[in-house]
Predict the 3D structure of the following.
Amino acid sequence: MRSRKTDRPTGSWSERPARHGLGDSGRRIYLDYGAFAPVDPRVLGLMTPFLEGWVGNPSASHALGQEAKESLAAARAKVGRLVGGRPEGVVFTSGATEANNLAIKGVALRGPGRHLVTTAIEHVSVLTPCRELMKQGFDVTVLPVDRDGRVDPAAVRAALRPDTCLVSMGAASAEVGTVQSWRAVSEITREARIPLHVDGVGALGRLPLGVDADGVDLLTISANDLYGPPGVGALWVRLGVRLMPQIVGGGQEDGLRAGTENLAGAVGLGVAAELALREGVAEAERLLGLRERLIEGLAARCPAARLTGSRRHRLPHHVSVVVPGVKGESVLLALDLLGVSVSTGSACATQTREPSHVLRALGVEPREAEGSLCVTLGRWTRTEDVDVLLAELPPIVDRLRTLSPLT
């Protein structure tokens, strides 16, 4: 691919000025990486030439088209290396939501089975297509989880039927950070010869997750979760797993996803995957230290905050709590005015304004669940960022609890 000199962003993402509410350091403290991860400048720099022109359609026969095809293949190979599987299994999509829909509906509608298994704490992009299939006559077994948010692999085994066509589960929960035993589940599904779909968002690039090593048949990937561009993702599909395409038209992506490929986005995902493969282990170790600093600091300074999800089996960058007697949205807004960005749970789930189905599945009372907060750390999170949150959150919680009629 021809390259050009470009003005690349410099400095860390968190040093960019905020529109309002700055901390004492004069920069916004961003602790919501689970909802949106800033694009790494190294990713953006390599994407830029593909956005400036003189780029062909990967399906075209002329020289520019063939260059584009080669760039697409290179990106596919990088993603394949990250997930530990054949590059040809990578199907580029518009994001993780589309990848989940393609995996679930794609397998189910191809037949012949009419039964699926999933868990009660899956992302809405898993549970919603399952509900749509139920309207079409499919049976879906939704397995409960324990108070830590973990599903028992033995329950998966017990749920399987002769007509089960798919088991779909997340490697980890985006809302409470709990990591699942997908390897134990894969042993069960392989024995039963039933495809296993794993939503890898949150875990891929942070935890050891390889499709061939772990026996995963379909894996959902999000570019933005890896500090790549938003609106791009992929579904890795094992050879022999048959899917019904959900977007039809041309024959792109081996006939599984029609439409001219987002070449710049795919290149960005490839670069992000390459960086994750090279730097992911060290980054996860650094974030684990910050996570522990935050959890221990909250226990000491804000005892009203109770950790949700598993303490031991938890994503290295994820802290989620509930604070009885306050509303999470009020805490979020108070922190936002101080220049600190956190969330109250899954960004996709909060659009519904419904009580968290994940916290309900963990046995959290609805009124208590209103006080949920989710802090996700990332590539540009510093120790002082965690310390600012630990300094600012307790007085906010104390003030709101004093004003609340519930305490």
